[in-house]
Fold this protein.
Amino acid sequence: MNKKTKRILTSTFFLIVVILHVYGLLGHEMLAFYTKPFLMISLVLVYLGATKKANFWYVSAVFFSFWGDVFLLFKEQFFIHGLASFLFAHVLYIKISAEFLKKINLQKAAFISVPFVIFLVGLIFLIKDSLGEMLFPVIIYGITISSFGAVTLLNYLQKKTTENLWLFLGAIIFMASDNLIAINKFYEPKEFYGITIMLTYIIAQYLICKAMIVKDSSL
């Protein structure tokens, strides 16, 4: 099987899984439940089918994302496990993104971090009354994903390529998805948040995957 065929087959599989999952979110809960674990499985197949040499750290990040998805299927019992899984995924995404940086200017990095810090503080202030014992884990998670956003922005500003833009947008949309989870769980639950959370999550992971495919193909 040649590379082009692999890319077509894996991309088609991923698209089918996404369509079925979104359809499930619109009123078919069992379909959404059973397709969710296949989101990251199909996405990593897209990545592996398009690259000659896989990035171990990226595959590991998708692995932790997979377990995050699985744990959050049972969020009443395993929410903290899902949070921890995605925390590990974001730490790996930070590691990967930081390795793309040619140099790190601490003053510029601090300046870039300001809007992320302001947004995180605002979110914590909004939901703090409902966090209880989850306050510390949520703060740690918020700092981690905000760092992912800041590092990808710094990376894009250093080299304004399409793949770096995809990586940055992936991080920002991932932040949006996670912020909606926090608002939905700890502040103001709304039914439409569910599909919005998953759509932004899928788009974010796909953009990160596209960026990694281009970067790993250029090595």
Remarks:
- The chain has a mean pLDDT of 92.
- The chain has nine helices and no strands.
